[in-house]
Amino acid sequence: MQTPNLAVKQRNGRKQQNPKTTKGRQRIEIKEIQEENRRQVTFSKRRTGLFKKAAELSVLCGAQIGIITFSRCERIYAFGNVNTLIESYLRKTPVMLRSYYGGDVATGVDGDGPMWWERAVESVPEEEMDEYMKGLNGLRENLWTRICEMSGDPTAQMNAQICPDLMAPVNWKLMDENLTVKNDQGQAGYDGY
Amino acid sequence: MQTPNLAVKQRNGRKQQNPKTTKGRQRIEIKEIQEENRRQVTFSKRRTGLFKKAAELSVLCGAQIGIITFSRCERIYAFGNVNTLIESYLRKTPVMLRSYYGGDVATGVDGDGPMWWERAVESVPEEEMDEYMKGLNGLRENLWTRICEMSGDPTAQMNAQICPDLMAPVNWKLMDENLTVKNDQGQAGYDGY
DNA sequence: AACTATCAATAATG
DNA sequence: CATTATTGATAGTT
Asked: Going by DSSP bridges, is the β-strand pair B159-163/B166-175 parallel, antiparallel, or unpaired?
């Protein structure tokens, strides 16, 4: 859009037969990128793109969105009001913590009404178990998710990059189509893959 | 790509001066969409796109990604191994929970010892898996999965849309460039915004 | 929900 | 990290 194919304009009719300076974007297969460097670059680019998309969706539709990303290098990248979302999420799924840690975390949380597992019986069990088992079987990662009801006003968005022992918050400004990133920690020289 | 501008091919040189059948994609401002219907459509489309992007990023770069989305209509849409990710996330930012549960969460685990979430770090993956299996086995519905040490290659992704009192699991298959969605509940006629 | 024209994301380069 | 050519996402329409 901006000075498209500049080379053509500048050197039209010259010796060079092919005005194209690059091959442009090429189609890639969706499978793990083996070359480390290329993978890092892709991760960085696409994570940016993903967060941008999330920001736009949030603004356009007034939705609350949170994204947590763990890169292989044990870095966490998060988008959105993650803490708030997680809180809401956990509030509705306190059992997770209980069964997981064997503690009494959720004691008294659910108060009246049926417990989560009793409610659960009504919903689709079979397919899920199947999928779950398959996931386990393959010893991969797979996951899960939850239900609940939640509302709130979605206006501000926030983005944070969190390192294992070092929190490096990043503020996202959504202005038209350009997002600027400000890293308060100033971890320069390393994109943070 | 697929039969581009079919109208031209079929009716080239006909009476119609303008072969264009639609205005195509138009640029929109990133601000809350007021018209409800349009907002819902956009939410649905873009959420799909967002999850697809996340799936691709996950596969391409071997990253763990979780997305939680709260729509205004109190529905939650989640992507990825959310629970696992949240757990990991909480390990890094345990303080978060204290305020949320009024400090009572750690009851029975408090004192000078490590908090429950801190203890979790020491948990052996295999044990956790066992807990998982038991929980799911007996109680069905509640989700999730475990990855051993957060490593391994991520190929399969899963996506679920959860409605209050009705779980409508959706399986995502990431194949080349086409993602197919299978809704086991068959909640036809309503996209689930 | 399916289609199409257009805009936006990004793989390969510089 | 800036550019650019290309693929991919999607706004408007049916």
From this structure: antiparallel
Task: Specify the 3-state DSSP secondary structure of B125.
Answer: helix
Provide the whole-model pTM: 0.54
pLDDT in tens, A128-164: 444 433 333 322 222 222 222 222 222 222 232 222 2
Q: Locate B118 and state its tokens.
A: 């801190």
The closest CB to that of A141, out of B28, B81, B100, belongs to B81
Report H helices in chain A.
Answer: 6-11, 36-61, 82-92, 94-101, 116-120, 126-137
Residue B31 predicted with pLDDT over 70 = yes
Going by C-alpha positions, the residue among B53, B52, B54, B49 that lies closest to residue B65 is B54
CA–CA distances in Å: residue B178 to residues A108, B52, B119, B181: 45, 9, 42, 10
Distance from CA of A15 to the nearest CA of B (A): 33
Write the DSSP assignment of B130-141 as a string of letters: HHHHHHHHHH-S
CA of A49 to C1' of C9 (A): 7
- Rounded Cα gap, residues A80 and A152, in angstroms: 14
